[in-house]
Design brief:
The protein is an alpha+beta fold. The chain folds into 3 domains: 147 residues, Ribbon (CD59), CATH 2.10.60.10; 103 residues, Phosphorylase Kinase, domain 1 (2-Layer Sandwich), CATH 3.30.200.20; 218 residues, Transferase(Phosphotransferase) domain 1 (Transferase(Phosphotransferase), domain 1, Orthogonal Bundle). The strands form 5 sheets. Strands 6-7-8-10-9 form a 5-stranded antiparallel sheet. Strands 4-3-5 form a 3-stranded antiparallel sheet. A hairpin with a 2-residue loop joins strand 9 and strand 10. The longest helix is centred in the N-terminal third of the chain and has 36 residues. The two termini are 46 Å apart. It catalyses: L-threonyl-[receptor-protein] + ATP = O-phospho-L-threonyl-[receptor-protein] + ADP + H(+); L-seryl-[receptor-protein] + ATP = O-phospho-L-seryl-[receptor-protein] + ADP + H(+). Belongs to the protein kinase superfamily. TKL Ser/Thr protein kinase family. TGFB receptor subfamily. Its main location: membrane. One of its GO terms (biological process) is blood vessel diameter maintenance.
C-alpha cells in the first residue's frame, strides 16, 4: 500500500511538471473543447475550460472540459475497459482515438530533457518522504490499536463485488468512489430497471451496470443540497466499511429536459431496516448481530482515524430505520449522509454543511427539540446520534421473538404521537413529559435482550452527556457476542 501511495505521488509530480510546461506554450485564456454527454457543455457540442478531456468506459465516450484545480483526474491508470486522455489545445479532444492497448502517455520530445532530471531528484526525495510518512503512519496505527483494534479495519468493498474497476480504485485517491470523470461516464451506462422506494428526497431505483445490480438514488430538485453533501463527503472521505453503504458514483444528468441528481451505491435487495422489520422477525442472536452492525457503522462514522486510510469524525444527524439497509448476511449498513457534520480534531474545524433540511422529528433528541443543543460543539451532534440509535435498537427488539412472543412492528412513540408528528407534539412528549418507548417484559427474560434494553435506557437519557458513546455501545455488544459464541462452543464440547 505504501509503494502504491509513493507511485501516486510520483505520478502527481510528473503530471504537474508536464502541465506547467504545456500551459506555458498555450495562449492565455480558456480553451475551446468538444463537448458531448457532459453537463459542462456551454452549448451544442462545445464548452470552455482550462483542460479538455476524453474518456471511454466500456465503449461509452464522454468529451468535455474542466478547470486546472481538478487536473488530478488525468491520472487514471490503465485498467481494462477504461481510457482517460487530457489535452491542452483548442478542440484537441475532438479527434482522440483509443489505442488498442493503453500505454503510458507520451510527452513532447522537448519536455523530456526538462522532466527526466527533475524526476531523478524527486525520486530520491519521495523515497525519503515515503519512509517518514510510513513510519509516522505506523506509530499512529499502533496507538489506535491500543485504544481499539477494530478501528483499523477498513474493508475494501464487501458485498456485492462490482468488478475489477472498483477494486482498482477502492483504496486510491482521497475519497471512496471512482475518479470523478469515470463516475460520470459510468453513470450514463446504467439502465434503470424498477423503482424500489420513494420519499421526500426523491426516488430509489434498482439499476444494472455490466450485469451487476446497483442502487440509484435520484434526488428531487428541492433536495439538491443533500445530493451535493453526500457527493462531497463520499468523494473526499475514505468511508469504506462493511457497515456503511458502499458508494460507487455520483452524477448530474439531463433527462427529458430536466436535471436529475444521481447517487449510485451498492444495491441491497432486502431494502431498508424499516421495510425489513415490517415482514421479518428475528431470533435473539440475529437481533444482536443486527444491533452490533449498526453500532459498528456509527463508531466508524464518529471516529477520526489518522494515516493513509484515515478519515475525519462524522456525525450522521438523521439516523433512523429508513436510513439503514439490511444486507444478506443479516448485518446492516448506514446510508444517507445528506445532513452529516464533519469534524477534524487537529484543526478543530467543524463543517456543518449548507443544507436547510432538518432531521426526522420522530427521532430528534430532547436538546434538538427544545433548541438547547450547542451547535458549535461536535460532541453535541454525536450525542443526538446516540439518542436516535437507542430508538433504532428499540425497533429491532420489538421484532425479536422471545418465549414465542413477538410484537408488531411500530415506529418509536407510535402510541403518543400521530403518524406525521409536528415539532411541538414531539417536544411535549420527549421534553415536557419525558416519555420513553415501552419495553416489553419478555426482554428481561433473555440475556441478550436484557443487555440491549439496558443499553437503550443508557442511550436515551435526557441529559446528552449522560448517554453512552457509540464505542461503548459497540464494545458492550461485541463482548456479549463473544460470550454467546463461547457458550455455544462450550455446549458443543459438553455434548
Amino acid at each position: 500500500m505504501e509503494s502504491a501511495a509513493m507511485l501516486s505521488l510520483l505520478l502527481a509530480f510528473m503530471c504537474s511538471g508536464i502541465h506547467t510546461v504545456l500551459t506555458a506554450q498555450t495562449k492565455e485564456g480558456m480553451l475551446w473543447c468538444v463537448c458531448e454527454h457532459a453537463h459542462t457543455c456551454d452549448g451544442p457540442g462545445f464548452c470552455t475550460g482550462d483542460i479538455c478531456f476524453f474518456t471511454m468506459v466500456h465503449e461509452q465516450v464522454t468529451r468535455g472540459c474542466f478547470m486546472t484545480e481538478h487536473r488530478e483526474q488525468c491520472l487514471v491508470s490503465s485498467i481494462p475497459g477504461v481510457y482517460v486522455h487530457c489535452c491542452y489545445t483548442n478542440y484537441c479532444n475532438g479527434n482522440t482515438t483509443v489505442p488498442t492497448k493503453v500505454e503510458p502517455r507520451k510527452t513532447d520530445i522537448g519536455i523530456v530533457p526538462v522532466v527526466v532530471p527533475l524526476l531523478v531528484v524527486l525520486l530520491v526525495f519521495i523515497a525519503l518522504l515515503g519512509l517518514v510518512l510510513w513510519r509516522r503512519s505506523r506509530r499512529q496505527h499502533q496507538h489506535l490499536q491500543e485504544l481499539d483494534p477494530s478501528l483499523l479495519k477498513v474493508p475494501c468493498g464487501g458485498d456485492p463485488t462490482y468488478g475489477d474497476i472498483f477494486d482498482e480504485f477502492c483504496t486510491s485517491g482521497s475519497g471512496t468512489g471512482l475518479p470523478y470523470l469515470v463516475q460520470r461516464t459510468m453513470a450514463r451506462q446504467i439502465s434503470l430497471v424498477e423503482c424500489v422506494g420513494k420519499g421526500r428526497y426523491g426516488e430509489v431505483w434498482r439499476g444494472t451496470w455490466m450485469g451487476e445490480s446497483v442502487a440509484v438514488k435520484i434526488f428531487s430538485s428541492r433536495d439538491e443540497q443533500s445530493w451535493f453533501r453526500e457527493t462531497e463527503i463520499y468523494n473526499t472521505v475514505q468511508l469504506r466499511h462493511e457497515n456503511i453503504l458502499g458508494f460507487i458514483a455520483s452524477d448530474m444528468t439531463s433527462k427529458n429536459s430536466s436535471t436529475q441528481l444521481w447517487l449510485v451505491t451498492h444495491f441491497h435487495e432486502l431494502g431498508s431496516l424499516y421495510d425489513f422489520l415490517q415482514y421479518s422477525t428475528l431470533d435473539p442472536e440475529g437481533c444482536l448481530r443486527m444491533c452490533l452492525s449498526v453500532a459498528s457503522g456509527l463508531v466508524h462514522l464518529h471516529t477520526e482515524i489518522f494515516g493513509t486510510q484515515g478519515k475525519p469524525a462524522i456525525a450522521h444527524r438523521d439516523l433512523k430505520s429508513r436510513n439503514i439497509l439490511v444486507k444478506r448476511n443479516g448485518q446492516c449498513c448506514i446510508a444517507d449522509l445528506g445532513l452529516a457534520v464533519i469534524h477534524s480534531v487537529p484543526s478543530d474545524y467543524l463543517d456543518v454543511g449548507n443544507n436547510p433540511r432538518v432531521g426526522t422529528k420522530r427521532y430528534m433528541a430532547p436538546e434538538v427539540l427544545d433548541e438547547s443543543i450547542r451547535v458549535d460543539i461536535f460532541e453535541s451532534y454525536k450525542q443526538t446520534d446516540i439518542w436516535a440509535l437507542s430508538l433504532v435498537l428499540w425497533e429491532i427488539t420489538r421484532r425479536t421473538t422471545v418465549n414465542g412472543i413477538t410484537e408488531e412492528y411500530r415506529l418509536p412513540f407510535f402510541d403518543v404521537v400521530p403518524s406525521d408528528p409536528s415539532f411541538e407534539e414531539m417536544k411535549k412528549v420527549v421534553c415536557v413529559d419525558q416519555y420513553r418507548p415501552c419495553l416489553h417484559n419478555r426482554l428481561h427474560s433473555h440475556p441478550i435482550l436484557s443487555t440491549i434494553a439496558k443499553i437503550m435506557k443508557e442511550c436515551w437519557f435526557q441529559s446528552p452527556s449522560a448517554r453512552l458513546t457509540a464505542l461503548r455501545v459497540r464494545k458492550t455488544l461485541a463482548k456479549l457476542d463473544q460470550d454467546q459464541d463461547g457458550s455455544t462452543d462450550k455446549l458443543k464440547v459438553d455434548v
